[in-house]
Amino acid sequence: MINSREPTPVFPGLRGFYERMIPVSWLLVRLGVGWNLAYHGYGKILRGMTAQTKALDITVPYLSTINLPLSYVLTFVEGLGGLCIMLGLFTRFFAAANAIEMAFLTFVVYWGNGFGWLGKGYEYTLMWGIMCLAIALRGGGPLSLDRLLGKEL
Q1: Number of independent structural domains in the chain
Q2: Does 6 fall in a domain?
Q3: Chain-wide mean pLDDT for the chain?
């Protein structure tokens, strides 16, 4: 059985501070995840799409039905998606898209290398995929453009 009661702070005077910070904490999570994704999307633009596809060592670099290089999709999902996650705009959509991308990278691209990121393993993509999934499940939260607009994807 899950205990739904919040724990009592050891220092009761902190209760008010903690309660006021709950909305801010979700904003911090979105900013951290979104910044990381946007930075990687921007890096893909700087390196160029061909270099990015080669760096991933993906044997089928095109999405077959629309003949679109995978690197363009990754750049869009990470770059624009990261910015939107930071802003809390279309949050669930872009977080879910990034979670799917990270699942692909984890299980198709990096799985065979083992866990450790320093050995080109899946540690990093698995962590960011789980974070994106959590954001997709929760949405933008109280301090988001989605909330301000009153709509979300």
Answers
A1: 1
A2: no
A3: 86
Contact 101, 72 (CB under 8 A): no
Is 65 part of a structural domain of the chain? yes
Q: List, for residues 127-145, the tens digit of each pLDDT value.
A: 999 999 999 999 999 999 9
Q: Where are the alpha helices (DSSP H) in the chain?
A: 15-47, 49-56, 70-75, 81-87, 91-104, 123-138, 145-149
Structure tokens at 128: 């960011």
3-class DSSP state for residue 89?
A: coil
Q: What is the pTM of this model?
A: 0.83
Q: How far is CA 8 from the centre of its chain?
A: 32
Q: Is residue 35 included in any domain, yes or no? A: yes
pLDDT(69) > 60: yes
**Residue 72 covered by a domain:** yes
CA 21, chain centre distance (Å):
22
